[in-house]
Amino acid sequence: xxxTKSASLxxxxxxxxxxRITESLESFPPKSIAADSAAELLLAYSPWARALNExxxxxxxxxxxxxxxxxxxxxxxxxxxxxxxxxxxxxSILPQGSASTKTLIRSPIGNQKFDIDAVCQVDxxxxxxxxxxxxxxxxxxxxxxxEAEAKKRCWNIPFPKKPFYLEFTxxxxxxxxxxxxxxxxxxxxxxxxxxxxxxxAVADTPTEQWKTSNPEGITTWVDDTAKxxxxxxxxxxxxxxxxxxxxxxxxxxxxxxxxxxxxxIRLFKRHRDMCVRRGIxxxxxxxxxxIIVTLLTSCYEGLADLGRTYNHPVELLDELASLMSHLVLKxxxxxxVDNPTVDGENFxxxxxxxxxxxxxxxxxxxxxxxxxxxxxxxxxxxxxxSKRAREVxxxxxxxIDDTGLSSIGYRTPPATRPGxxxx
Length: 423
Hints:
Layout: H1 5-16, H2 38-58, H3 63-84, E1 91-96, H4 98-101, E2 114-122, H5 132-142, E3 149-150, E4 155-157, E5 164-173, H6 174-180, E6 190-191, E7 200-204, E8 209-213, H7 215-226, H8 260-277, H9 289-305, H10 313-324, E9 329-331, E10 334-336, E11 342-343, H11 357-378, H12 382-393
Parallel strand pairs: 2-5
Antiparallel strand pairs: 1-2, 3-4, 4-5, 5-7, 6-11, 7-8, 9-10
Helix pairs in contact: 1-9, 2-12, 7-9, 8-9, 8-10, 9-10, 10-11, 11-12
């Protein structure tokens, strides 16, 4: 049988890891629980599930903040229409990155902004496809009154009175650009066949050329992978939490623990941020979110391709954490985390340009994550489990505000520069 790329990565990672994070889960479910007793199995895992779900709920971005992002999208769209005289129907502004994959999280610092990534797709007939930099700059000029700042491939819009800043990437459909300027895309950045329909061209300011991008493809990959059930059929309704209505165009960020891939991405991103707070890794070399998303989704996909199943989401979280650090490829001395939607793009490219600083930070974070999860999963008293989980993920003891979510009381550190959309 021919193995998929993700399945091969998982098999390699299983051979490389010394052991699972905690042997305590190897013997689950307890022998005293009948194999068909779903209720007892859920009960046995409930202290850990409840503690991790408490973290998951706390780091969820509030619905009213998502609603503000919707307003910001509309403001940007109408400004482009007014300044560039583009018809409104020629512009499509969509969430990308964490906002679109439902893995957006709150900062561990109470008043620090989070970033909302957005991509602006423009009808090719409205622009000169042979001039990517002219297109990029025209968008920036139109957003001047919003104090937009140019980044590598996007414009950062600070929105001073909002709880977020917007990373705004102008783009055009890749197929339309290719038809007019076939030599303008770097040959090593081609849209993967599976995701060609959603591929975009974005202006790459360092090269002053078009570059292939596919945020919708990434979202589709994560969505499709997350739907593959690795948990044996239990009475999962017992783990359900109330849902809130989605807020368009930014998806609702409510995620249940049974949605284990997204919960893993969110929890691990939060743990990474806490490792920066704890001084374990430096902020300028911390693993960027797209690398975490890619490694975890590849791992989940590989486990599904191999037909692996787990008794409970806690078991699967343990598995994902123990395998993650061993999924990074090193080929001809170069670290690789391949973009599944753009052939040739390496999300870990900077890891090969800094003397190994980013890779060492990644390993240090993974080791700390494993140690912290091992501590949590070795506990048996529900109160101790909850206490340790709150400490590890930066959730204060249960002081509940009027929104139903705890607020974090850390001292605010010096301001840091926002990321570059995928960070």
